[in-house]
Amino acid sequence: MKAVCLLSGGMDSSTLAFLAKHDGYDILALHFTYGQRTEEKERECAKRIARHLNALEFLDVDLAYLKKVGASSLTDQRMQVKPHNEAGEGIPETYVPFRNANLLSVATSFAEARAADAIYIGVQASDYSGYPDCRPEFIDAFQKVITLGTRPDSGIELKTPFVRLNKAEILKIGMELNAPYEDTWSCYSENEIACGICGSCHFRREAFRQIGIEDPIQYR
């Protein structure tokens, strides 16, 4: 069996790839750059995780047009990545408009071209409180798109095992699978030493704190 794994190099997607391997799939790693501030670090980490898993392939896709679209603090240098406690309510400014539909469209093409059985994407409960394209309803709808838009015998299954889990629960799974978190990166704004205060750093640190394990990456 083969599975396309969307691998950002972050904590969730890396755990997800280890889980897919544990489930018996050979990994087709799919990484995206889209003008995000930490794209160099994310790519480096994604490649390391792919090597850990002896991935069959590492496909690096440039979606630079999302930077041109803008309207996200991840890609628009005119916008500030705010500390977690200043981020406020509603849709976070780190939301990249309709990003997951873009990513999953490429993943579906890759999966169909390589006769893969599944696509793994690491959407999780903490995300869909703010990101509409992480909601279970969106995932269900995209599964229908895959079924309708690919060959009748493709049978590609969209897998989201973390969709109802929080970050601490995901981390526990990763620890059981010996995921190498020292080779992952979550910070939204820095490439060398994590800022420790953006929303992504906040939730990562909180997950490690909740399960009583020291995060192996450095923070300011």
UniProtKB/TrEMBL annotation:
Record protein name field: 7-cyano-7-deazaguanine synthase
Native source species: Methanospirillum hungatei
Keyword Signal annotated: no
Cofactor note: Binds 1 zinc ion per subunit.
Summary of the function given for this chain in its UniProt record: Catalyzes the ATP-dependent conversion of 7-carboxy-7-deazaguanine (CDG) to 7-cyano-7-deazaguanine (preQ(0)).
Pathway: Purine metabolism; 7-cyano-7-deazaguanine biosynthesis
Required cofactor names: Zn(2+)
GO molecular function, one term: ligase activity, forming carbon-nitrogen bonds
UniProt KW keywords: ATP-binding, Ligase, Metal-binding, Nucleotide-binding, Zinc
Residues reported to bind ATP: 7-17
Underlying gene: queC
